[in-house]
Amino acid sequence: MSSITQVQQELLGRMQQLQGVASGAAIKPADQAAPDAGGMFMAAMRSVDAQQHQAGAAMAAVDSGKSDDLVGAMIDSQKASVSFSALLQVRNKLTTAFDDVMRMPL
Q1: In terms of CB atoms within 10 Å, which end of the chain has fewer, N or C?
Q2: Contact 51/83 with Cβ under 8 angstroms?
Q3: Can you give the pLDDT of all 106 residues of the chain as single tens digits?
Q4: CA 98 to each of CA 25, 31, 102: distance values in angstroms, whole numbers, following the listed order
Q5: By C-alpha distance, which of 45, 53, 51, 49 is closest to 21?
Q6: Rounded distance, CA 3 to CA 75, Å?
Q7: Dihedral class, residue 47 (left if φ above 0, else alpha if ψ from -120 to 50, else beta)
Q8: Which of 90, 68, 87, 103 has the alpha carbon at shortest distance from 23?
Q9: What is the CB neighbour count within 10 angstroms for residue 47?
């Protein structure tokens, strides 16, 4: 399998995982809510942050001449960009869902 296909599959898997966290089966009372849901989102944020730092380090190495792997640096940069975009979409969906719940009449 080519590296681009492998990257696409990896990103698709992460997006599906984040979508599963965002969609949730039902609204549960706070005492019954999964305590791990917030931890999963924080783990996703840390993963995206790590990818961005890795991409920045790879680009800096290419810029300074320490590395000649321009293609690898660009792939790392694109991975970080797509991961960040996916995380923003999940955040936006969660924010919209929260706003919808707050606007519900009692």
Answers
A1: C
A2: yes
A3: 577 777 778 878 887 777 776 666 554 554 455 556 667 888 888 999 999 999 999 999 999 999 899 999 999 999 999 999 999 998 899 899 999 999 988 7
A4: 15, 18, 6
A5: 45
A6: 9
A7: alpha
A8: 90
A9: 13
Residue 71, both tokens: 């293609």
User: Could you tell me which residues come within 8 angstroms of residue 73 by beta carbon, excluding any fewer than 6 positions away?
Assistant: 55, 58, 59, 61, 62, 67
Structure tokens at 10: 């990896």
Which two structure tokens, joined as six digits, stand for 15? 């997006």
